[in-house]
Amino acid sequence: xxxxxxxxxxxxxxxxxxxxxxxxxxxxxxxxxxxxxxxxxxxxxxxxxxxxxxxxxxxxxxxxxxxxxxxxxxxxxxxxxxxxxxxxxxxxxxxxxxxxxxxxxxxxxxxxxxxxxxxxxxxxxxxxxxxxxxxxxxxxxxxxxxxxxxxxxxxxxxxxxxxxxxxxxxxxxxxxxxxxxxxxxxxxxxxxxxxxxxxxxxxxxxxxxxxxxxxxxxxxxxxxxxxxxxxxxxxxxxxxxxxxxxxxxxxxxxx
Length: 255
Hints:
By secondary structure, the protein is α/β, with parallel strands linked by helices. The chain is built from ten helices and 15 strands.
């Protein structure tokens, strides 16, 4: 059995029973306990489950498991691509300045930018900066700091100081959760601080979030809904979230 097949079996067993143990999986799949532990570690890094003593349980939306950028790039690909293209309508005029937050959906916006965009682009994302540099973006600024391995985002005091000194036309910000009461949330306090500073540095805040983020809340709230001007997403927000967005006058843009 290939590793991918084994890990698919693990996720299916977890969905069926709500809990799996290393011993049971090793016996059922006829592999060593160490092989199962490696599989569980990989599945946890991709956000499919949460490790426990001797086994695993499903990852809870808004829980402690933070997905890697590579894992998030492979999720909801069509929706994120459509969101990135739709966000092009919200770029400032030629000569303007925009912040691009680190994330798998803001990454799609960066990939969709025309070569002759004529903008000053500022980002804290190493992957986004690399892509824009390779595309010969003329006026690109990178906010340097400590690079988080999971997300490729630069964080820390130097990034925050740089953001305090600038004012841009628009900030394109990603979020892990979009909640009617807690607003925009994420899992890491350092990334939350940078996202908050980006929102404060922009005349207009545009959130890029696919519908899987609706209603979820994570550890740290980095911006209330009244800080947001536009939400670009792939589906109409439901019930309480739709009401909250309307209350705060947030424009919803769909592809």
